[in-house]
Amino acid sequence: MNRPGHMSTLYLPACIIFLVVMAFMPVVETGNVMTSESSISRVIEIGLLLAASGIIVIAIIVNQCYVAIKSAGWFVVLAYAVWAMLTFLWSTNPVLSFGKGGELILCYFIAVALVVYMKGLDILDSNSFLRVIALGVFAAVVALIFANFAIEGGSPFRFTEASEWSGRPGRFYLGYSHPLETGELMLIAIIITTVLRAPIALKLILGGVFFYILLLTHGRNLIGMCPLVVAVVMYFSGGITTRVALWFCTVACVLVFVVFLLSGDIIENLPRDFWTLNNRVPLWIKSSEFISDSPFFGVGYFSSRYFLLEHFAFAGHAHNSYVEAALTTGIIGLGLMLIILFYALIIAIKSKDAFLMGMLVSGVIGGLFNPVLIIPNPTTFLLILALVAASERLAEDQADLVVLLADRRKSGQRNTTNQSTPGQYQNG
User: Fold this and answer.
1) Cα–Cα distance between 19 and 46 in angstroms, integer?
2) Measured between alpha carbons, how far is 92 from 85 in angstroms, rounded to an integer?
3) Alpha-carbon distance 307 to 315, whole Å?
4) 319, 280 in Cβ contact below 8 A?
5) What tens digit of pLDDT does each residue of 269-326 get?
6) Which partner from 31, 365, 398, 406 sits 20 to 30 angstroms from 41, CA to CA?
């Protein structure tokens, strides 16, 4: 077996991450989102997830990585995934709800299996784990750029049509994903670049490329929160102090504002869609009416589109993770999701895991504008993976500490016995 952390041991788990990310970033035309009919993109999506599951299971068996998971992180996530799948019982589209709930369970299974595999090979330490994440995600970005070349016939640039209503220019996207999905992937890549141990020059080049692509997607909420996420990651990784983090956020936010100002984006859109958050506020108000009709159980996982599109042509979902969770899985589902986030926050603070904290902050803030949390997508998968890995490392450290204290206690008892023995003989 290779020594722990050797690059050759990192390729297989990186390949698994690559497959999962590519499953949710389509490179062929997507089918009708309103139906449960099969399409090439849906077959590829589930096929890649099943392939990732099969490969990691075979790898565990071949390498005999039969290790137990000590932390409770796996159960917290599984509870929501199972509940989401069960909503098919009362969903408007039971096949879609069951299928998407099953995909979420698959994401959870792959994440746990990856942790078991990496723990068995002794490569679950933070440095090796981050290198695995970086290899998988960066490879997916490169593959998607090459996919753009193939789709566009020699150009990597794919843009949507300019929006007549908001005045926004065409937005860049990879493959056949939504521009916001492309932006979310770029934000993940920026988080990885920030926390990864690599030469500063390389990190600046990679971070600059990813941020440039993020700017092209015109995801204003993603661009706006990027400096905050980077500052949090740098602070948690020990790279900067609190004061420097605050200054970094301030300066970066000013620069982002200047970029928007020079592009004319703020001037053109401020009167029209700023106060409604690009028409999200009326959407959330209408969503709350549907929530009140089925407050505890929701309308069914991934079924919000059947209620919202009648009133908002752009609303295939509630454009808010928390509203979407309440609408589709009810107060029960929303509560389970908040428990996951709270548990992740505790683990991130205790373990001081910068990547987990970065994914959590980006998910929590990004979730205010789009349903990026606890649905089958790269953000949720990597958040689950980081959470299970960090909680497992923390559980291992605590177990080692218990063993160490027990050994010291036994050693102290032996020393006490040895010191008292000569006196007993003398008294005799």
Assistant:
1) 11
2) 13
3) 9
4) yes
5) 554 566 666 778 888 889 999 999 989 999 999 999 889 888 887 778 888 999 999 9
6) 365
* Pair 39, 26: CB distance under 8 Å: no
pLDDT tens digits, one per residue of 168-216? 678 899 999 989 999 999 999 999 999 998 899 999 999 999 999 999 9
Tokens of residue 296, six digits? 């505890």
Q: Are 284 and 318 in contact (CB under 8 A)?
A: yes
Give ∠ CA 50-139-173 in degrees, rounded to 5.
90
Radius of gyration of the chain (CA): 24
Q: Tell me which residue of 246, 248, 322 sits closest to 284, measured CA to CA.
A: 322
Q: Which two tokens stand for residue 136?
A: 């998988």
State the angle between helix axes of 94-120 and 11-23 in degrees (0 to 180), rounded to the nearest 10: 170
pLDDT interval class at 383 (50, 70, 90): very high
List the alpha helices (DSSP H) in 154-241: 179-195, 200-216, 220-236
User: Averaged over 33-47, what is the pLDDT?
Assistant: 77
Amino acid found at 119 = K
47-51: list long-range contacts, CB under 8 Å, 24+ apart. Answer: 48/19, 48/20, 48/22, 48/23, 49/19, 49/20, 49/23, 49/103, 49/106, 49/107, 49/110, 50/106, 51/19
Beta bridge partners of 159: 172
Distant-in-sequence, close-in-space partners of 111: CB < 8 Å, separation ≥ 6: 77, 381, 384, 385, 388
228/251 Cα distance (integer angstroms): 11
> Taking the alpha carbons of 20, 156, 355, 397 in that order, is the dihedral positive or negative?
positive
* 52 vs 12: CA distance, rounded Å: 10
Q: Taking Cα atoms as reference points, which of 8, 106, 134, 127 lies closest to residue 63? A: 8
Name the one residue in this structure whose structure tokens are 């590829």: 44
